[in-house]
Protein 1
Amino acid sequence: PPFTDFDMAYFNSYAHVGIHEEMIKDRVRTETYRAAIMRHQNFIAGKVVMDVGCGTGILSIFCAQAGAKRVYAVDASEIAVQANEVVRANNLSDVVIVLHGRVEDVQIEEGVDVIISEWMGYMLLYESMLGSVITARDRWLKPGGLILPSNATLYMAPVTHNDRYRESIDFWRNVYGIDMSAMLPLAKQCAFEEPSVETIAGENVLTWPHVVKHVDCYSVTIQELQSVTTRYRFKSMMRAPLHGFAFWFDVEFNGPAISQTNRQPSALMADNQAEDGSQRKKRTNPNEALVLSTAPEDPQTHWQQTLIYFYDPIDLEQDQVIEGSATLSQSRENARFMNIRLEYASGQRSFVKECVMR
Amino acid sequence: PPFTDFDMAYFNSYAHVGIHEEMIKDRVRTETYRAAIMRHQNFIAGKVVMDVGCGTGILSIFCAQAGAKRVYAVDASEIAVQANEVVRANNLSDVVIVLHGRVEDVQIEEGVDVIISEWMGYMLLYESMLGSVITARDRWLKPGGLILPSNATLYMAPVTHNDRYRESIDFWRNVYGIDMSAMLPLAKQCAFEEPSVETIAGENVLTWPHVVKHVDCYSVTIQELQSVTTRYRFKSMMRAPLHGFAFWFDVEFNGPAISQTNRQPSALMADNQAEDGSQRKKRTNPNEALVLSTAPEDPQTHWQQTLIYFYDPIDLEQDQVIEGSATLSQSRENARFMNIRLEYASGQRSFVKECVMR
């Protein structure tokens, strides 16, 4: 695909150190990735790895520590220059090869056994970076290769959030004794026009989540990510005002696709070469799925949850049904943006809310 | 002055409700303004007021509550439309006249007795909104009129802030066991290139502050704000690493300029017409200056403090002298931006740091 001004802006946003600091300091994220690498150490040792969107190179270095023969660390952002410095300073230049460019543009002369990438955006699909993982997979991944994470699931659920509504909206009803309700329409628009990345608690969620999209990283196509539509039907487990929907995701780090699980001898031989033995202790059950979750009931991550608020809440009775559809699609204007269209109906009333995540 | 694209961007930034919510919810700010209006109620009652940059109109309404005959509420941002709605909903349309436009462009047919404005930006002078207050003063303020706030003072002081340095810089020395010190130059640049608005504690301040600029709102000129230079000399009260300088300000709400203090009969007559009597109780000593302070040792405001960090700390001994100069000037490119040039010397070493607040 062509390199657009939007790509340029996107890659530039990753040139700033702060964003990498935030991601690395997200211990849930970084430690789960490290645990995943260590869990698949048998497979990774002696193999060729590609890290798609390597940032500062931390995952590539984890892979080198796990015994990878070679790691191609690819990033189109200027941060790749720093990644290269970090690799050099750690005497890993003979293992980790930093490539400063888009996955779509770089050249490598061999197939890879492992693709690792931390590609997930808000609402999973925002940023559209998964497309680059798919490109790398289709171009370089050998049969039987490993992709980490192996699969991802996006969820949605109806939420109640009185505190948020009170703080941003009801606030205007009495401002130091003055009735500023005239601000309400604009306040609702400003607060709720765009998706809001924030942390909610399990108690805000009105019922079990609905799966919006399941992604199998071994088989997903760029085509099927351009627009995702789901129909949902929720039955509220309690009586509460419905303020909108929350979206979150999890990803799993399973082994290679079922049809391709034959481990190769070199991997088996490398089984005990872990540099970081400490991770091994956590492997109480090596077959249990390793999950990185951004759900409200799980420890907080930098992804938090993404909320789409209605302009006005809907009062729900217990067991009342809310149904409709949600469509997430890449913006035509800028594929890094996401258009969201929510249809929802409850009782006799039906609504549509459209917004853009920029 | 001409209406530039930069003005447009500046006014647009105030069209969003969030910024007004933040300012109004800053109780130190809003309650001090209200207290100031109530303290000068004798003067305001029956008079003509202009509110420069009225936002949602809250200060104008406070002035109406204090008995103003007429309040011209001026704002160039689209928020003026909302201010007008709020005024109407409070049945104050016959007192508060909302003018949607720049102070430099609006027309009013009478002089004003009082100018009130919440014009202070970060580091006091950022945003350059004081120029509009000066324009209003020179165009409309009657002799003996009142300006609230009446004067403002910008301070600076050397600070130590190990936590901040450790968190953003030293962090890279050991990232999950990996030495990422190669990130340090970029991390320092990203963290400390620009002024940082953040809250520090009194303990971070190494000695008494230096007055960078005192502004008398009755006499200050636009000319003298274009560039402010000060020479400072600090003697550290403790042994500590010097990480940079903090800037903060306070403003006072004193009566009309000394030469013009003759209260007029109409004001005296209105002495007991306070709608909000509760404020009166705070007037234990009506001659004591009412101060809105953003100093580190005072309750936090949305202005916080503005920090200018060095790329590398300087180890100070107790009583060691740091001296140099600071220049704050309007950017030529965009008068809403501020160029900051710091010269500092300690022992045999001297340094220059230049940055821009955008």
Protein 2
Amino acid sequence: MVIDTALLDRFAAIVGPDNALRDEADLALRVTEDRGLYRGTSPMLLKPGSTQEVAAIMKLASETGTAIVPQTGNTGLVGGQTPRAGKADIILSLERMNRIRDIDPVANVLVCDAGVILAEVQRAAEEVNRLFPLSLGSEGSCRIGGNLSTNAGGVAVLAYGNMRQLCLGLEVVLPTGEIWDGLRRLKKDNTGYDLRDLFIGAEGTLGVITCAVLKLFPRPVGHQVAFAGLNSTEDALKLFEKASSLCGPALTGFELMPRIGVEFTTKHIDGVRDPLESPHPWYALIDISTSDSAETAETMVHALLEQGFEAGLVQDAVIASSVAQAQALWHMRESMSASQKPEGGSIKHDISVPISKIPAFMAEAEQAVLAAVPGARVCAFGHLGDGNIHYNISQPVGADKAEFLARWHEVNEIVHGLVLKAGGSISAEHGIGQLKRDELAAIRSDIEMDLMRRIKHAFDPAGIMNPDKVIRA
Amino acid sequence: MVIDTALLDRFAAIVGPDNALRDEADLALRVTEDRGLYRGTSPMLLKPGSTQEVAAIMKLASETGTAIVPQTGNTGLVGGQTPRAGKADIILSLERMNRIRDIDPVANVLVCDAGVILAEVQRAAEEVNRLFPLSLGSEGSCRIGGNLSTNAGGVAVLAYGNMRQLCLGLEVVLPTGEIWDGLRRLKKDNTGYDLRDLFIGAEGTLGVITCAVLKLFPRPVGHQVAFAGLNSTEDALKLFEKASSLCGPALTGFELMPRIGVEFTTKHIDGVRDPLESPHPWYALIDISTSDSAETAETMVHALLEQGFEAGLVQDAVIASSVAQAQALWHMRESMSASQKPEGGSIKHDISVPISKIPAFMAEAEQAVLAAVPGARVCAFGHLGDGNIHYNISQPVGADKAEFLARWHEVNEIVHGLVLKAGGSISAEHGIGQLKRDELAAIRSDIEMDLMRRIKHAFDPAGIMNPDKVIRA
């Protein structure tokens, strides 16, 4: 499929020649993503510098039936930001729109363009003694537009929620080129349908988010991180219940990790050491943040571990005694996925189940996976407090990587079958994109898919807005 | 407008004759609401006993073009639940669907029919040592379906959010009679468009909510309530900032009240006394809840008042020393609206502005109101921490009530004009319904109204679902 040069010239004229890339070499990194799982084709990448330019692009696209794929940090994991293969999708990159428009520490809001890097938002908040709590592995390169479009989660969801909870208002360019100004700064506003939350998580299929009002929070003054060795996922769940009751919203992290994850990280990741003397089947990383005083966090973490020991839930534990130690514990958790790479192929799942069902799900899933792939090494870890597990499976030792990865869909079906049986989600964090689009259609009711298609058609009648992502046109 | 008896009989057959009311006397309280502001007409009220019966009703309504008005506790304040005047809207009451389907204190979820009374949900949560935080003046009679349909807020929004934040999943009967089963129990689920939040706050115009999965929370163990006399709204805002930084999510209430509100309540409401020795222009009611220990709340409240005194923000203060005293302080705040009744007519506004703009807005609005209605008594109070003020205005002493109330729209225009200038909302909590429908259309951009109409049409092509509420057909 090709677009004629005259039309490309018209698009280029909107942003100026320097901001319209057509060379294959310039586009190479943008038609694919980090892992190379998706490779699309595109005749052009546009870098508009303002909402008005985005609007002009969408207007022209709408008039000429040209498909547009919005892209920000290009760190998405489901191919939502990648142009389709064999088509002529134009990539619309928001990277030049990277201005923090306003910051109000009294109202606790920050207003920024969609192209601002997440870490920049965190820094800007810190400068006015506030916290923007969204935190992800890719925070140094992912951008707010993508965070919003995927309703990003990360490690602080337990206490602060995901992107839907962290956003008060949006500016969106619609597929027609019209601009919706929904840049409200209000915590309470019951005036009509919730358009904001419809655009958030829509993965760029309903419009192009160009600006957002984000919520800020007071910075906690007390922070404690503990690492506990546990016998079972049942014990982990019981310990989480105790932590949740004791700490309430001060419980800012409760991550579950398996022994094999500790082995992988200590073996492959620089500077990671097993903090406990002897091995344990499971581990919990517990993060507590308090706003009134450092002592409250200290009292809490000691009380929790004491309760855990007394109830026989905690076998051994350490409390980080410095910021460096706290960071080292988090570093272990955050490098768990990377530590699987040297172990060969890994089949991944980004799932959630109601947290009361985690122990049963983990046991059933491991049994089913091992029955299908004897010797496979399940390295399932993640945000226990949210019911969100990164259910990763490393290949058997010595197995052929390609052969193992060829069973991706077969293994997905086994794991997702059990997830659905438990009332869970096949995409807790990463979204649908291209990766899970057909699977979503297969597992959702006809009426739900139909409602989604009706919304898509109502917003994008020409079908030009990131087509074939989330749902098929 | 009339519906023929044969059609009414077909509707009645779905629920059985005992659950299909046609007598005018039986319908009298259902075609109007408490204050009698809206009076509609209806040939029939149906009380289905199951989701399937609701679906059958909607299917028949869809086939015959019959308008349906969902109703639960009938406590709404904008006429959203009232049938239209001069039409033949059938009322669909969810009151018989009042079963708590499931409660899981480990996963912290409660699943209940839309007809369950809010206070029953609170009680059921308490029985398993959990908190359902939504709390409203009408909690003894309002029902979950209405709370969801209006995205209810109340006094605990500051810490726990409004109904959108408190709901994980929904079951909805669509205008066509199809059932959408979205009864998910997951905190993280990024699988497609956010249908849930579209139905929440849609005031019954997109479908009939029949069941919901609600979030539960650990019950706090420490609770402190303080009442502080302040010189100005500027000081109130500064004190709120201190409270928010110090207490973080443990700050579960920060209510602003004017002197006149304390005068009205002490004069007219049984058992309310001024807790402070001398009068102050403004007051803050501060509510702190902690999960780790009672001492933490105690330490916090003392530290906050100390900081407030030192900074010259707090002129005088009391801390409730018993549960009864804490309740008495809240009782004053909660009866503030009722205490205006004996003072004559009251023109009300349910508005929000970004909290940093509250002092300027309050000053400007009072000046503008007094310029238009000399002698009017502004009694503006509410959830300062959410930027949500119930901007009520009592008539001048000795004025004619009817004459004063005849200026309702004129005064609304003055106040709402300033609200919009401050980037605020003309309906922070109560919704749009009939009351603010035309005003919403006037203040919103064409593109926003158009998007709302496109959604309405996509979900309800026959236009039978609570027509002419929120937006005109």
